[in-house]
Protein backbone atom coordinates (compact mmCIF):
# COMPACT_ATOMS: atom_id res chain seq x y z
CA UNK A 1 0.00 0.00 0.00
CA UNK A 2 1.52 3.32 -1.05
CA UNK A 3 1.31 6.58 0.91
CA UNK A 4 -1.79 7.85 -0.92
CA UNK A 5 -3.63 4.56 -0.42
CA UNK A 6 -2.71 4.52 3.23
CA UNK A 7 -3.92 8.11 3.70
CA UNK A 8 -7.19 7.27 1.97
CA UNK A 9 -7.76 4.24 4.18
CA UNK A 10 -7.10 6.30 7.30
CA UNK A 11 -9.60 8.91 6.13
CA UNK A 12 -12.19 6.20 5.45
CA UNK A 13 -11.68 4.95 9.00
CA UNK A 14 -12.15 8.49 10.35
CA UNK A 15 -15.40 8.86 8.40
CA UNK A 16 -16.70 5.70 10.10
CA UNK A 17 -15.46 6.83 13.51
CA UNK A 18 -17.23 10.17 13.06
CA UNK A 19 -20.49 8.45 12.09
CA UNK A 20 -20.27 6.20 15.15
CA UNK A 21 -19.42 9.23 17.27
CA UNK A 22 -22.60 11.02 16.15
CA UNK A 23 -24.73 8.23 17.54
CA UNK A 24 -22.67 7.86 20.69
CA UNK A 25 -23.01 11.61 21.35
CA UNK A 26 -26.79 11.42 20.95
CA UNK A 27 -26.94 13.79 17.99
CA UNK A 28 -28.09 11.03 15.64
CA UNK A 29 -29.92 7.71 15.72
CA UNK A 30 -29.34 4.40 13.94
CA UNK A 31 -28.65 4.82 10.20
CA UNK A 32 -29.95 8.37 9.92
CA UNK A 33 -27.59 11.11 8.80
CA UNK A 34 -24.35 10.84 6.87
CA UNK A 35 -20.69 11.88 6.96
CA UNK A 36 -18.24 12.87 4.25
CA UNK A 37 -14.69 14.14 3.82
CA UNK A 38 -13.11 15.83 0.82
CA UNK A 39 -10.55 13.65 -0.94
CA UNK A 40 -8.09 14.40 -3.75
CA UNK A 41 -5.38 11.98 -4.91
CA UNK A 42 -4.09 10.16 -8.00
CA UNK A 43 -6.29 12.11 -10.38
CA UNK A 44 -9.40 11.75 -8.22
CA UNK A 45 -11.15 14.91 -7.04
CA UNK A 46 -14.23 14.44 -4.90
CA UNK A 47 -15.16 13.12 -1.48
CA UNK A 48 -15.61 9.98 0.59
CA UNK A 49 -19.07 9.42 2.08
CA UNK A 50 -20.97 6.87 4.14
CA UNK A 51 -23.09 4.49 2.05
CA UNK A 52 -26.86 4.30 2.08
CA UNK A 53 -28.73 1.70 4.11
CA UNK A 54 -25.87 0.28 6.20
CA UNK A 55 -25.65 0.50 10.00
CA UNK A 56 -22.58 2.45 11.04
CA UNK A 57 -21.35 -0.30 13.34
CA UNK A 58 -21.25 -2.69 10.38
CA UNK A 59 -19.15 -0.47 8.12
CA UNK A 60 -15.64 -1.31 6.99
CA UNK A 61 -13.29 1.14 5.25
CA UNK A 62 -14.04 -0.52 1.90
CA UNK A 63 -17.74 0.29 2.34
CA UNK A 64 -17.14 4.04 2.25
CA UNK A 65 -18.04 5.36 -1.20
CA UNK A 66 -15.87 7.71 -3.26
CA UNK A 67 -17.93 10.23 -5.24
CA UNK A 68 -16.29 12.36 -7.93
CA UNK A 69 -17.14 16.01 -8.54
CA UNK A 70 -19.38 14.97 -11.43
CA UNK A 71 -21.41 12.80 -9.04
CA UNK A 72 -20.06 9.48 -10.28
CA UNK A 73 -19.75 7.02 -7.37
CA UNK A 74 -16.91 4.54 -7.04
CA UNK A 75 -17.36 1.65 -4.67
CA UNK A 76 -19.21 -1.56 -4.02
CA UNK A 77 -22.13 0.22 -2.33
CA UNK A 78 -24.31 3.19 -3.23
CA UNK A 79 -23.51 6.52 -1.58
CA UNK A 80 -25.81 8.20 0.90
CA UNK A 81 -28.99 9.51 -0.69
CA UNK A 82 -27.82 12.99 0.36
CA UNK A 83 -24.59 12.88 -1.66
CA UNK A 84 -25.79 15.83 -3.78
CA UNK A 85 -25.67 18.41 -1.05
CA UNK A 86 -22.29 17.14 0.06
CA UNK A 87 -20.99 17.56 -3.50
CA UNK A 88 -22.55 21.00 -3.94
CA UNK A 89 -21.35 22.29 -0.57
CA UNK A 90 -17.79 21.24 -1.39
CA UNK A 91 -18.08 22.95 -4.79
CA UNK A 92 -19.39 26.17 -3.23
CA UNK A 93 -17.18 26.18 -0.14
CA UNK A 94 -13.46 25.59 -0.60
CA UNK A 95 -13.10 26.10 3.16
CA UNK A 96 -15.08 22.89 3.82
CA UNK A 97 -13.17 19.63 4.02
CA UNK A 98 -15.72 17.62 6.03
CA UNK A 99 -19.50 17.56 6.39
CA UNK A 100 -21.68 16.02 9.08
CA UNK A 101 -25.45 15.67 8.57
CA UNK A 102 -27.57 14.46 11.47
CA UNK A 103 -31.17 14.21 12.59
CA UNK A 104 -30.22 15.68 15.96
CA UNK A 105 -33.36 15.76 18.16
CA UNK A 106 -33.43 19.41 19.19
CA UNK A 107 -32.17 20.74 15.85
CA UNK A 108 -34.82 18.66 14.11
CA UNK A 109 -37.52 19.85 16.52
CA UNK A 110 -36.77 23.46 15.65
CA UNK A 111 -36.50 22.59 11.97
CA UNK A 112 -39.96 21.01 12.08
CA UNK A 113 -41.25 24.36 13.36
CA UNK A 114 -39.45 26.17 10.55
CA UNK A 115 -37.23 27.92 13.09
CA UNK A 116 -33.56 28.65 12.82
CA UNK A 117 -31.49 29.57 15.88
CA UNK A 118 -31.32 33.33 16.46
CA UNK A 119 -28.81 35.26 18.56
CA UNK A 120 -30.27 34.18 21.92
CA UNK A 121 -26.74 33.25 23.10
CA UNK A 122 -23.39 34.59 21.96
CA UNK A 123 -22.14 31.05 21.15
CA UNK A 124 -24.45 31.05 18.12
CA UNK A 125 -21.49 32.79 16.47
CA UNK A 126 -19.61 29.47 16.52
CA UNK A 127 -21.46 28.67 13.28
CA UNK A 128 -19.90 31.70 11.61
CA UNK A 129 -22.62 34.34 11.78
CA UNK A 130 -25.30 36.13 13.75
CA UNK A 131 -27.77 33.26 13.48
CA UNK A 132 -28.10 29.67 12.30
CA UNK A 133 -30.54 29.60 9.41
CA UNK A 134 -33.19 27.02 8.64
CA UNK A 135 -33.25 26.06 4.96
CA UNK A 136 -36.70 25.65 3.35
CA UNK A 137 -38.07 22.15 3.02
CA UNK A 138 -37.40 19.98 -0.02
CA UNK A 139 -37.56 16.21 -0.50
CA UNK A 140 -34.44 14.41 0.73
CA UNK A 141 -31.80 13.62 -1.86
CA UNK A 142 -33.01 16.22 -4.36
CA UNK A 143 -31.22 19.02 -6.17
CA UNK A 144 -33.75 21.42 -4.65
CA UNK A 145 -32.69 20.45 -1.14
CA UNK A 146 -29.07 20.85 -2.14
CA UNK A 147 -29.71 24.39 -3.42
CA UNK A 148 -31.51 25.33 -0.22
CA UNK A 149 -28.68 23.95 1.92
CA UNK A 150 -25.97 25.80 0.00
CA UNK A 151 -27.94 29.06 0.30
CA UNK A 152 -28.56 28.59 4.03
CA UNK A 153 -24.85 27.97 4.55
CA UNK A 154 -23.75 31.15 2.80
CA UNK A 155 -21.49 32.90 5.31
CA UNK A 156 -22.16 30.11 7.80
CA UNK A 157 -20.71 26.74 8.82
CA UNK A 158 -23.96 25.13 9.93
CA UNK A 159 -27.65 25.23 9.14
CA UNK A 160 -30.91 23.46 9.90
CA UNK A 161 -33.02 21.74 7.23
CA UNK A 162 -36.76 22.26 7.57
CA UNK A 163 -38.62 19.09 8.67
CA UNK A 164 -35.36 17.15 8.36
CA UNK A 165 -32.24 17.80 10.44
CA UNK A 166 -29.01 19.78 10.40
CA UNK A 167 -25.70 20.16 8.57
CA UNK A 168 -22.32 21.17 10.01
CA UNK A 169 -19.09 21.53 8.09
CA UNK A 170 -15.47 21.99 9.04
CA UNK A 171 -11.87 21.99 7.93
CA UNK A 172 -11.66 18.38 9.10
CA UNK A 173 -13.93 15.68 10.46
CA UNK A 174 -13.17 16.53 14.07
CA UNK A 175 -14.10 20.15 13.48
CA UNK A 176 -17.36 19.32 11.70
CA UNK A 177 -18.33 16.87 14.44
CA UNK A 178 -17.50 19.34 17.23
CA UNK A 179 -19.60 22.02 15.54
CA UNK A 180 -22.53 19.62 15.10
CA UNK A 181 -22.47 18.86 18.85
CA UNK A 182 -22.31 22.58 19.67
CA UNK A 183 -25.22 23.42 17.36
CA UNK A 184 -27.36 20.68 18.91
CA UNK A 185 -26.49 22.03 22.37
CA UNK A 186 -27.57 25.52 21.29
CA UNK A 187 -30.78 24.11 19.79
CA UNK A 188 -31.55 22.36 23.08
CA UNK A 189 -31.00 25.56 25.09
CA UNK A 190 -33.09 27.62 22.67
CA UNK A 191 -35.93 25.07 22.73
CA UNK A 192 -35.92 25.09 26.53
CA UNK A 193 -35.98 28.89 26.64
CA UNK A 194 -38.97 28.86 24.29
CA UNK A 195 -40.92 26.81 26.85
CA UNK A 196 -40.87 29.86 29.11
CA UNK A 197 -41.21 32.59 26.52
CA UNK A 198 -39.38 34.35 23.71
CA UNK A 199 -35.69 34.71 24.63
CA UNK A 200 -34.05 38.13 24.67
CA UNK A 201 -31.85 38.32 21.57
CA UNK A 202 -28.44 39.91 21.32
CA UNK A 203 -28.33 42.76 18.82
CA UNK A 204 -26.31 42.82 15.61
CA UNK A 205 -23.62 45.05 17.09
CA UNK A 206 -22.94 42.66 19.96
CA UNK A 207 -22.91 39.61 17.69
CA UNK A 208 -20.51 41.46 15.43
CA UNK A 209 -18.15 41.97 18.38
CA UNK A 210 -18.44 38.29 19.31
CA UNK A 211 -17.73 37.15 15.74
CA UNK A 212 -14.69 39.44 15.59
CA UNK A 213 -13.36 37.95 18.83
Q: In terms of structural class, how would the helical and strand content be classed?
A: alpha+beta
Mean pLDDT: 96
Count the DSSP helices. 6
Binned strand content: 15-25%
Percent range of helical residues = 25-40%
Poorly predicted residue ranges: none
Bulk shape: globular
List keywords for this structure.
213 residues; alpha+beta; eight-stranded mixed beta sheet; 6 helices; 8 strands; 17% strand
Outline the secondary-structure elements.
Layout: H1 3-24, E1 34-41, E2 44-49, E3 65-68, E4 73-74, H2 83-92, E5 98-102, H3 105-112, E6 134-135, H4 143-152, E7 158-161, E8 165-170, H5 173-194, H6 204-212
Parallel strand pairs: 6-7
Antiparallel strand pairs: 1-2, 1-5, 2-3, 3-4, 5-8, 7-8
Helix pairs in contact: 1-5, 2-4, 3-5
3D architecture notes:
It is a single chain. By secondary structure, this protein is of the alpha+beta class. Helix content is 38%, strand content 17%. It has helices spanning 3-24, 83-92, 105-112, 143-152, 173-194, 204-212; strands spanning 34-41, 44-49, 65-68, 73-74, 98-102, 134-135, 158-161, 165-170. The chain has an eight-stranded mixed beta sheet with strand order 4-3-2-1-5-8-7-6, with helices on both faces. Strand 1 and strand 2 (44-49) form a beta hairpin. It starts with a helix and ends with a helix.
Amino acid sequence: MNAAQNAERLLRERVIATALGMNAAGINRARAGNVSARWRADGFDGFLITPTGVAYDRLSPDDIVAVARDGEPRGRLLPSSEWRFHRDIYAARPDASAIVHTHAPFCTTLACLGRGIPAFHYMVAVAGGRDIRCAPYATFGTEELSRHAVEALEGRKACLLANHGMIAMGRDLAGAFKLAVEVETLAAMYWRALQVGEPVLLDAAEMGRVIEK
